[in-house]
Specification:
transferase, LPS_LOS_Heptosyltrfase, Rossmann fold, alpha/beta, 6-stranded mixed beta sheet, 3 domains, single chain, glycosyltransferase, 20 helices
Length: 480
C-alpha cells in the first residue's frame, strides 16, 4: 500500500455502463498517481472484465462493511440505484460526486452529474457522451483532450469474418431476426463469412435468424462468457451490433464496429467511445429519443435495410478507418436514403463527437440548436469561455432568425418566471413539473437543468437567484 487514500467508483449498472467507465479509470490513474483505485460493480460483469479493464481493484457489494470503514480521497457514484446513493452518503471521503443520500433524500453532487440527471426524457440537444460526463467533474478538460485512444484494427481484405450480435437490452433497440437473416445472406453474397453472436438470453433470437437464413451461418449465441467473447472478437474483421454492452466491449478492445443505432438511444451519448468506429442512424427527425413519443412503434428500425447494410459493411472492411471514406470512393454505389453514416471521432476540445460521412445531413436547425446548448453548458461548467456561446448564437441567428428571436423570447419568459418564484414564494417549494415539461424544445435543455438544480438545492431562494443568473448568462449572448 502507498499510504494514500483510495478512490472509490460506484458503477452498479449494466455491462456496457461498466465498459464506459474504463476511460474514467484511465484518467483517474493519471490524475491521482499512487492512490489505490477501487471499483464497486456487479460481480457478474466485473469478474469477467478485469482482464481488459484499466488497473483497478474490483469490489463486490458483499464487501459493503469494508468499504464503509475506509477513508477515501474521492468517491464517484455513477449509478442511479438507491443502494449506491445510500453508500455514497455514508462513506468518509474528502469529496463525493454523483447521487448521494442524506437524511432520507437524494442529492446529486457535481455539475455534470446533475446535468446528466436532467437529461432524462430531455436529451434531444445533448452532445456530451456518457463516458466523458463520467469524468468531467473531476478530470480537467485538458487531460481528457491529451488522451490518444487507439483506433480499431484493420484486418485487411483477407479476413472475411463478420460477427452479428442479435440481442439488446430492449427489443426496440435491435433489428428483428428476419433482418439478421437477410443481412447474413447478403454478406455471404459478398464473399464474407457472417456468424451470429449473442448472450445466453439471445439464443432463441439467433436460432430464429439462422432458421430464416438461406446461408445458415454458425450460431454462437450463448457460447461464450465475456472473456471468451473478447477472444473470439479478436479474430473478426468487423462486428455489427445494435447499441448494447458487447458493442462497447468489442470497440474498446479494438474490433472494428458498426453500430446500428435504432430505438430509444442517442449515439452522441452511447456510441462507441473510442474513435474510428461507424454509426448508422436513421434520418428521421425524432432520432436520439429517450422513448418513442410519436406512437410509431419505433419506425426508425424500418429504415435499416439488410442489403445496403451488407454493402456498407464490405466497404468498411476495405477502409482502414471510417474516416478514410473521406479520401476515397468507398461509398460510391451506396444509396443513403433514409439513413446517415457517422464515424466516432474527437472534436477540437478532445471530446467524443460523431463525424458525418454520408447521407442527408441532420436538420440544420436542430444541429445549430444543439451546438448552442453545448456551448452554453460548457461555458457554465467552465470548459470554455462565453465567446463560444456568442459565436453559436450568431450562427443560429444568421441561419434561422425567427428561431433565434423565439429562443430569446422564451428565455426572457423563463427569467420572469424565476423572478416571480423567488419574490412570491412563502415556503421552500420545488418548481412545478410544468416548468420544464411545458417549454418548447428550444429552451427545454436549460429549463430541465434548472428544475433539477433548484430541487437539488431544496428550492432555496439562493438556488432561484443562481438559476436566474444562469438564464441571464445565456441571454448575454444576445448583447455581446
Amino acid at each position: 500500500m502507498t499510504g494514500k487514500r483510495p478512490i472509490l467508483v460506484l458503477q452498479l449498472q449494466r455491462m456496457g455502463d461498466l465498459v464506459l467507465t474504463f476511460p474514467l479509470l484511465l484518467w483517474l490513474g493519471r490524475r491521482f498517481p499512487g492512490h489505490p483505485l477501487w471499483v464497486a460493480a456487479e460481480e457478474q460483469f466485473s469478474k469477467q472484465l478485469i482482464p481488459i479493464s484499466p488497473p483497478a481493484t474490483y469490489l463486490s457489494w458483499s464487501s459493503l462493511q469494508g468499504m464503509l470503514q475506509q477513508q477515501y480521497e474521492l468517491v464517484i457514484n455513477l449509478s442511479h440505484r438507491p443502494e449506491a446513493a445510500a453508500l455514497a452518503g455514508r462513506v468518509q471521503a474528502e469529496e463525493v460526486v454523483g447521487p448521494v443520500e442524506k437524511d432520507g433524500a437524494t442529492y446529486v453532487r457535481g455539475h455534470f452529474q446533475l446535468y446528466r440527471a436532467s437529461l432524462v426524457h430531455n436529451n434531444r440537444h445533448n452532445r456530451f457522451h456518457w463516458a466523458d460526463m463520467n469524468a468531467l467533474d473531476v478530470i480537467p478538460l485538458a487531460e481528457v483532450a491529451a488522451t490518444r485512444f487507439s483506433g480499431p484494427r484493420h484486418m485487411g481484405t483477407q479476413n472475411h469474418s463478420v460477427g452479428l450480435f442479435v440481442g439488446a437490452s430492449q427489443p426496440e433497440k435491435r433489428p428483428d431476426p428476419a433482418f439478421f437473416a437477410q443481412l447474413a445472406d447478403a454478406l455471404v453474397k459478398r464473399d464474407l463469412r457472417p456468424m451470429f453472436f449473442g448472450g445466453p438470453d439471445d439464443r432463441q433470437l439467433a436460432a430464429e435468424a439462422r432458421k430464416l437464413s438461406r446461408s445458415k451461418p454458425p450460431n454462437l449465441a450463448g457460447k461464450f462468457d465475456l472473456p471468451g467473447l473478447v477472444k473470439a472478437g479478436q479474430g473478426l474483421a468487423q462486428f455489427i451490433t445494435p447499441d448494447t454492452g458487447p458493442m462497447h466491449l468489442m470497440s474498446w478492445t479494438g474490433v472494428k464496429t458498426l453500430d446500428l443505432s435504432m430505438g430509444p438511444v442517442n449515439p452522441r451519448e452511447t456510441a462507441p467511445h473510442t474513435p474510428g468506429h461507424a454509426v448508422l442512424q436513421t434520418s428521421l427527425s425524432c432520432v436520439g429519443c429517450w422513448e418513442c413519443a410519436a406512437g410509431l412503434g419505433y419506425a426508425c428500425r424500418e429504415r435499416f435495410q439488410p442489403g445496403r447494410t451488407a454493402m456498407l459493411a464490405e466497404r468498411l472492411m476495405e477502409a482502414p478507418t471510417p474516416a478514410a471514406f473521406g479520401t476515397t470512393n468507398a461509398l460510391d454505389g451506396i444509396r443513403f436514403r433514409g439513413v446517415r453514416l457517422f464515424a466516432t471521432d474527437r472534436d477540437r476540445d478532445g471530446l467524443h463527437c460523431l463525424a458525418p460521412l454520408s447521407g442527408r445531413p441532420p436538420a440544420p436547425a436542430r444541429e445549430l440548436m444543439s451546438l448552442f446548448w453545448h456551448a452554453a453548458f460548457g461555458a457554465h461548467f467552465g470548459l470554455w469561455t462565453q465567446d463560444r456561446l456568442v459565436t453559436a448564437r450568431k450562427q443560429l441567428a444568421e441561419a434561422f432568425p425567427k428561431l433565434d428571436r423565439a429562443l430569446l423570447r422564451h428565455l426572457r419568459t423563463m427569467l420572469r418566471e424565476l423572478a416571480g418564484h423567488a419574490a412570491h414564494r412563502s415556503s421552500q417549494q420545488p418548481l412545478p413539473q410544468a416548468f420544464w415539461s411545458s417549454r418548447p424544445p428550444c429552451t427545454r435543455p436549460l429549463a430541465g437543468y434548472i428544475q433539477m438544480y433548484v430541487e437539488n438545492e431544496n428550492a432555496s431562494r439562493e438556488s432561484l437567484t443562481h438559476a436566474a443568473a444562469l438564464v441571464e448568462s445565456v441571454l448575454s449572448a444576445w448583447v455581446s
